[in-house]
Amino acid sequence: MTRFESLLQEKAVRAGVAVFTVVTAAVVALQLGSGSGSASGIAFIDHALATIAERPAEPETEAGWDIANLDHRRVDMWIDIFTTRPKVRERFALWLERKQKYEPMISAKLADRGMPQDLIYLAMIESGFNPKAYSRAKAGGLWQFIAETGQRYGLTVNRRVDERNRPDKATDAALAYLTDLHERFGSWYLAAAAYNTGENRVGRIMREVTGKERGTDADYYRISSRLPRETRDYVPMMIAAARISKDPAKYGFGPDSEPRQSAAEVAQGPALAE
Q1: pLDDT value for 248
Q2: CB distance 170 to 145 below 8 Å
Q3: Rounded-to-10 torsion of CA 81, 85, 88, 93
């Protein structure tokens, strides 16, 4: 192995870039007449690798998902809450029933915009697919808009008319808002966080922690400790809801299902489930 090849291999491992990309950069360098061991050839590769390494990582997706399904202890915690606490489990079962009613409409609108289908689970954790849901923070509808944001995205909200409670119109507004958030932050996790707590707060925290607003899904967990408590759990809840909804039988949901027991309930008895 030449000095050039050895250095190239070492830098490829450190940068964590694809072998194909590195080989392509090397071929370009050689075609430019740099020579297999020349200083200019090595300098070219240095520049190429540095440029690639600075690019934001692409979100990780897997079969059956079109947003990143990142593992995290808070995702596991919410799966446990949704599946083992009787009252919460009963509520989640109702969400699954309602999902069947609204999924065709939401799915079609997501497809029309070329957006991830998995964003339906944001509506699930926002309202449980209840178009008349109204929160203590005065957010309303399937997507839980506050009046000002709903009006900003074209919804009529006044004493006589509240289009936040119109599932079709509210979905159009929510998807437009999420599109703008994704364009600003470059990540669906960060867009979801901004949807929950406000884009300016997420933007400020991202600048303070990472030096820029745009980032990756992993950056959500990097800034999580700086977010309000509700927002720290927002994406984990969404991913937990998605995992259960994609395979409800695995988690004991269905007509003949039996409630699951958490590790604590198994160890200490049924009193904890009351």
Answers
A1: 97
A2: yes
A3: 100
CA dist 8 and 21 (Å) reads 12
The token pair at 2 is: 């030449």
Half-sphere exposure at residue 234, Cβ-oriented, CA atoms within 13 angstroms: 25
What is the reported pTM? 0.73
Catalytic residue numbers read 126
Which residues are CB-contacts of 148 (< 8 A; sequence separation ≥ 6)? none
The torsion angles phi and psi of 105, rounded to 5 degrees, stand at: -65, -50
Give CA–CA dist 244/270, Å, rounded: 23
Give the 3-state secondary structure percentages of the chain, helix then strand then coil, rounded to 5. 70, 0, 30
How far apart CA 36 and CA 54 sit, in angstroms, is 25
Examine the pLDDT at 54 and tell me if it is beyond 90.
Answer: no
Residue type, 16: G
DSSP at 164: G
- Tell me which DSSP letter residue 67 carries: S
Q: Which amino acid is at 107?
A: S
Is the pLDDT score of 263 beyond 70? Answer: no
Q: Are the C-beta atoms of 181 and 196 separated by less than 8 Å? A: no
Which amino acid is present at 241? A
d(CA 124, CA 238): 8
**% of the chain exceeding 90 in pLDDT:** 69
Band of pLDDT at residue 161, cut at 50, 70 and 90: very high
Q: Which two tokens stand for residue 252?
A: 């004991």
Mean pLDDT of the chain: 81
Q: Which residue has the tokens 């604590």?
A: 264
- The model's pLDDT over 97-121, given as tens digits with 9 standing for 90+, comes to 999 999 999 999 999 999 999 999 9
Q: Are 193 and 202 in contact (CB under 8 A)?
A: yes
In angstroms, the CA 68 to CA 251 distance is 20
Q: In angstroms, rounded to a whole number, what is the distance separating the alpha carbons of residues 159 and 195?
A: 25
